[in-house]
Design brief:
This protein is α/β, with parallel strands linked by helices. It folds into two domains: 242 residues, Rossmann fold, CATH 3.40.50.1110; 62 residues, no CATH class. Strands 2-1-5-8-9 form a five-stranded parallel β-sheet, sandwiched between helices. The longest helix is centred in the middle third of the chain and has 22 residues.
């Protein structure tokens, strides 16, 4: 007798291209993109996550990618001041500092680094969070962040589907011109923007999904990963949410990570990731007695496993992990 399945499952076709440890992966967009991007980083993949900080709307993502393509350098005229800190309308507040030159240095060094990374990337994952934007009244610019300035300085409006399509019809060919093999994957953040209200949030998400699917019809090189649909249909329960009942909780993120792996990881890569996870977790081990023979054996055994993995998988960015355990081993000789 077949048991009933008490949930709906989102059918996701496997990607035409798989991720490997030699892949370069860029993630850009809403805070949800950081959840998956940082999980890959934690598992020692070569990942660049949000070079402008968290960005929610498609036009700001477009502006960010355009800046990376142009390798633009910011100058003092690109900065504004709020209280004691300098900031950019194109950046999240994590790029805001009290010193103007330090702010510019931080912004420009990251643009330089990420511009090169984008040109070498195998995958670009773009996560849209909302179709609502804030337009700076004095310039007409769609800002990436309001930096807690008064609402009267901005006009809030909903992007049109065609407006999003037009921007990316222009951007995508330019991306492929500098990086012809780049696989671009769109997704929509499952985090609801509740300040828009229940209806406003649905209108916003629907605008994003419709624009993406129109782009999928026009460009064969694009893919869509349904993170929004997974949460809405497969994880239709508040136990998968954080305490605010808005953001996806750790259990929900872990489930999306598993579904992500089903689409983009081969069986061999999945096994390698499990090996890496064990070694990464080993670094968290805190012995009761750091001078014990048991801990010495644990360190030596872990170094052997890391060396073997590095030999078999030379692309894994495991050097910092090896350095940690070699330093632990060095302590034994210092104690002798």
């Amino acid at each position: 007798m077949e048991l009933p399945l008490f949930r709906t499952v989102v059918d996701i076709p496997e990607s035409s291209r798989k991720i490997s440890y030699s892949s370069k992966l860029m993630f850009i967009g809403s805070c949800f993109t950081e959840e998956i991007g940082n999980k890959l980083k934690d598992n020692l993949f070569d990942v660049d996550v949000n070079p402008f900080g968290v960005i929610y709307n498609p036009i700001s993502v477009y502006n960010s990618l355009r800046i990376l393509l142009e390798q633009r350098r910011f100058t003092e005229s690109d900065l504004e001041r709020r209280g004691s800190v300098w900031f950019s309308w194109y950046h999240h507040s994590r790029f805001s500092l009290p010193d103007k030159q330090q702010t510019l240095d931080l912004i420009n060094s990251r643009i330089e680094q990420s511009s090169q990374f984008l040109r070498q990337s195998d995958f670009l994952f773009v996560t849209f969070g909302t179709a609502w934007v804030y337009v700076l009244n004095k310039t007409g610019q769609v800002v990436s962040n309001c930096h807690k300035l008064p609402e009267r300085l901005f006009t809030r409006r909903l992007l049109e589907v065609d407006e999003i399509i037009k921007a990316y019809e222009e951007l995508l060919p330019d991306l492929w011109q500098v990086n012809p093999d780049l696989k671009v994957v769109f997704t929509v953040s499952p985090v609801r923007h509740w300040k828009d209200g229940a209806v406003g949030n649905q209108v916003s998400k629907s605008t994003l999904i419709l624009a993406i699917h129109k782009l999928l019809e026009r460009f064969e090189q694009l893919e869509y990963f349904p993170s929004y649909e997974i949460v809405m249909d497969e994880l239709r329960d508040y136990r998968f949410y954080a305490d605010d009942m808005i953001h996806v909780g750790s259990q929900g993120v872990d489930y999306i990570w598993l579904r992500f792996g089903q689409v983009y990881f081969s069986a061999d890569l999945d096994r390698t990731i499990k090996e890496v996870q064990k070694l990464v977790k080993a670094r968290e081990h805190r012995p009761l007695n750091p001078q014990s023979d048991e801990y010495r054996q644990f360190v030596n055994s872990t170094i052997e496993k890391i060396m073997l993995l590095r030999k078999n998988q030379p692309h894994i960015r495991i050097d910092s992990l090896l350095e940690y355990f070699l330093n632990e081993k060095k302590k034994f000789s210092q104690q002798s």
